[in-house]
Amino acid sequence: MTDVDLPSGWHWGVGEVTGGSKTYWFYSNLRFHYRGQIYTDPNQPWTVNFYEETGLTDNGDVKVCEYPCKYGTFESEEDALWFVVTTAKELLNY
Asked: Where are the alpha helices (DSSP H) in 1-94?
């Protein structure tokens, strides 16, 4: 999955695969923009969430909005990745 190129300004972060579950995080490299998550569980659709960054916590971690600003559910990994790439371009106005 992380071999898929993200648009300029976006990067893959931490990913985890356990059993049939897969979770990957991605983020924009501009401070206080967006972070996202793409994940699936066995026999479940792929889910993509984009969260707007809102600042820093007291210990320096990035805070994000409680609810995603963009999201979608997809039957295939290919469709979910298409949504990640096209939404990432849209959010940073590429």
From this structure: 77-91
- pTM, 2 dp: 0.89
d(CA 42, CA 30): 34
pLDDT tens, 68-86? 999 999 999 999 999 999 9
Closest CA relative to residue 91, chosen from 13, 48, 35: 35
Cβ-contact 28, 10 below 8 angstroms? yes
Q: Is the separation of the CB atoms in 2 and 10 below 8 Å?
A: no
Q: In sequence order, what E strands does 1-94 have?
A: 10-18, 21-28, 34-40, 46-56, 62-64, 70-74
36 with 57: CB under 8 angstroms? no
